[in-house]
Amino acid sequence: LFLFSRFVMSEEDTNHFDLIVIGGGSGGLSLSKKAAAYGKKVVVLDFVKPSPFGSTWGLGGTCVNVGCIPKKLMHQAALIGHSVEDGKSFGWEMERPEKPNWSTLVSNVQSHIKSLNFGYRVALMEKDVKYMNAYGTFVDEHTIKTVNKRGKESIITADVIVMAPGGRPRYPDIPGVEFGISSDDLFMLDHEPGKTLVLGASYVALECAGFLTSFGYDTTVMVRSILLRGFDRECADKIGDYMKEHGTKFIQPATPSKIEKLESGKLKVTFTVDGEEQSDEFDTVLWAVGRDPCTNGIGLEEIGVELDPKTKKIVCNEKDQSSVEHIYAIGDVSLGKPELTPTAIQAGLLLANRLYGGATLLMDYINVCTTVFTPIEYGCCGFSEDDALAMFGDDVEVYHQSFTPLEWTVPHRGDSVCFVKLIVLKSQNEKVIGFHFLGPNAGEVSQGFGLGLKLGATKTDFDNLVGIHPTVAEVKLAIGLFVFVVVLFVLLLLLL
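Above: the chain sequence. Below: its structure as tokens.
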């Protein structure tokens, strides 16, 4: 009897953790490793349900497997193609191939991703974090039932549970939706996409349409209303104009009604434009109409975790804490937070510090930089112009400037198509509350200026910063002078 009791206690101890993290993406991994560094017993649950198309992947979450990493590599492939075109103007006598070798591109991208998957598993082992490739559902507030891919069940418990499962692509409710693919599938597609219809106006839609067009594929974007909802409207419209000028087709406003697979293998898409029904045939249909959090059917509401009725995201306070005291949420499942990998990583680190390190620092979700890797890259930080006007009204001043990168002058890639904008508050010594940049290397440029916004930089601080010449980042120095010259010119016209 004594030996049996010792066995039962040992089994319970094995299945109880200080922390259960549901989701092995960017946020979950950063949180789990940091918590383990504090000496806590941690387990990470990560399980990828196959997409409707049948795609699946390894540890690391959306960003690593079907998001940021493959997207940026595909974007880089497109930039290299444009560089080959520019090469002639710089004396390199070469012809650009009509298209890249799709098979080689996908194979090499996937090889890199698999190396990252392996690296994440090794990192968890090194930090003594238990990894379970299993799907978790709540039994009660402290208990999770796990099921692995072979159907084996187990029960684990924890003092603290953190939700970090991310999200998955949304699919519309129309006949033939199953014939389309999503970003869950595109980056590992085993055949050329060919003539492609991208449905949606999100950054995912425009980024994918951008590199597919650059690769030489006939690409069309079908948009229900506006491009890049939530981003700066002026910048979003400039991106759309640039993409149109460089070969991407747009159908706007339009909504699809059905998809049919023809005997030829092509997909016939029927859609409505301004009340008129039309149709066209495509080789590939890519759904990019939004993403939904992975919160459905896992028992959250049953244990009292509040979900937003519309989005089904978890409602959290400023400490990333849900309505159940010991259950937290970070990343894409948390309501009102930026759906960005670095945001989830930082939120995870700070949460671990607060839970186990005695820290009090909260995540700053406001001044978070991001970049959209469209053919003309768009980096931003802080308020959009519309949001700033809605919140601060007449206290807002906007400075802007168009420019041409030096690298674009020799091959004549367009004049003054790049753009920078500063949004400031007049009452606070022109404190900069919004930075927007359209042009090459937008991510690198925005990251640097983002620190200025976080530290409360003013327009004068931007003007007084000595630029690096010749770079696209130095263009911000011309903003004030440009506005001054325009105002002076207008005054002279009035006087005359």
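The CA atoms of residues 45 and 132 lie 5 Å apart.
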